[in-house]
Amino acid sequence: MMLHTLHCRRFRGLADTTFTPGPGVNIIYGANAQGKTSVLEAILYAATTRSHRTTTDAELARHEGHEFHIVANATRGNSPVTIEAHWWKGAKRFKVNSATQARLSDILGQLCVVFFAPEDITLVKGAASGRRLFLDMELSQLYPVYLRALQQYRHALRQRNELLRQHRDDTEMLAVWEAQLSEHGGVLMRMRAETITELSEIAADLYGRLVADEPLALTYQPDVGAPDAIAETLARARTTDLNRGNTGRGPHRDEMDIRIGDKSARAYGSQGQQKSVALVLKLAEVMLMQRHIGEYPVVLLDEAPAELDSNRAQRLFTVIPDAAQAIITTAQPIELLPLSRENATLFQIEGGCLEPGTH
Amino acid sequence: MFIQSPIVERLIESFRRLPGVGRKSAERYALHLLSMPPEQAFDFSAAMREAREGITWCPVCRNLTDTTPCVVCADDRRDQSLICVVEQPTGAMAIEKGGAYRGVYHVLHGVLNPLEGIGPDELQLELLFNRVKGGNISEVIVATNTTAEGEATALYLARRMGALGVQVSRIAHGVPMGGGVEYADAMTLAHALEGRSRI
Are B115 and A162 inside 8 Å of each other by CB? Predict the structure, then answer.
């Protein structure tokens, strides 16, 4: 996966410009509030139809205008792909290779990206729901079967919750939704277990190379012991569930435990450790995607070097695989950046204008 | 202007009640109807009225019919011991078009959907159970849709009918006939692989 050009018009504070990243590592440097994050945001928007900073598309238009446009030219496998995102007076339109696309599933995956922002520390520090979301997003991108099971599971969960909310103590009716939760939840559990094992292995290796020689481990902590036990667990929890008015057990309560040595990174990790673990998880996602789709996604790292001390920042450039294209922003002065890769392409940004940078 | 007339507004709102018709289409239909020769328009309204009055639910299978019972239920060349359960009359229509099915139908007029307040009492279930209890039923085929609600309804039927001692089966899901495997979506293919059969 490689992004060749990104053309933005009227997007955020960016000047109407064409960004032409090179292969390998690209670094966009500049002071704060010059538009570094906006460049990554534009790529993320074209790839996923949404921004990480806002759910209101209008905020993405420059000076509260009524339109913005993003055109991304990339290569996927050996074929060129052009994604156009047009937002005009409240309506968004996406085109892939000039053909209008209405379905999200037809746009996602055309340009695969993995995005890391400083806020991602909540992945480690925050509630279990954030880690489930991370897993769900990753698995849904890799396996359509997972996405379908997830949608069906959530749907059945809403139906069962509705029965509970109405305090309908109807064993027969609850049971048919429990059967669905068991079937689809079983798929979720099995695929989560497999993926967490794989992710843990990759993340442990990355953590060792990037951060410190401490054992990092991800373990799946399913709420229900085994896929086969879902139906029975739900059946036993009926009385409790009727009292609380929703479903208290099941894969929607799963947790992915992150441990450094024998300590929970969420509860006992230092701020620094948590930041590095979050970055490592995202990089592990990059490697996992490469294993499954055969090429690296475009790696977007917002202020990643600032999340690490200078030794580790230097190592960051060595753990990013040579074959992967990465776009990294930093507010640090470029001469302070421990660049060990001469082939990095530099860009300076000032007032929304991108200029080629100098080593 | 004519379009602000309450009479026209009523017509537009009537069209809007049809599935897939929005405000714009409803306006087009109303305008078109008003530009037709009057006798054509009256014929249209008469056809609607006649159909609505003449078509009722079959007392046996709850399908739409102009005879009592419906032609399928009255046809003694059809296997009256084989019942195919569908969500809506459209389901029965689709299976009938196939021409291969020789049994009879039962139309539920909906599926279990707690979020929309539809429980067993809102569906045409009692009648179905009574048909089965009446004996002479060898098999019930559940042909509800493959949505979460359709599957839940199928399971509910299987459990209730299992208790009545009748054989219940579910229609297979798979690749469309004459369709290339490459055109089937990933989910359908996964299901088709799961439900593969020995040749």
Answer: yes
Domain coordinates in residue numbering, chain B: 2-54, 77-193
Residues of chain A found within 8 Å of residue B142, distances taken between Cβ atoms: none
Burial of B4 (0-12, 13-18, 19+ CB in 10 A): exposed
- Range name among A159-163, A285-289, A337-341, B21-25 with the lowest pLDDT average: A337-341
CB contact under 8 A, A159 and B187: no
Structural domains present in chain A = 1-112+297-359 (3.40.50.300)
From chain A, which residues contact B within 8 Å (Cβ)?
Answer: 144-145, 148, 152, 155-156, 158-160, 162-163, 166, 168, 170, 172-173, 175-177, 179-180
User: What is the ipTM metric for this complex?
Assistant: 0.74
Provide the CATH number for the domain formed by B77-193 in this structure: 3.40.1360.10
Q: What is the pTM of this model?
A: 0.81
Residue with tokens 């026209």: B8
- CATH topology for the B2-54 domain: Helicase, Ruva Protein; domain 3 (1.10.8)
Per-residue pLDDT, B80: 93
A179 contacts B159 by C-beta, under 8 angstroms: no
Mean pLDDT of A2-17: 92
* Preceding peptide of B69 cis, ω within 30°: yes
Q: Bridge partners of A258?
A: A218
Quick: pLDDT tens for A132-154. 999 998 898 788 788 889 989 99
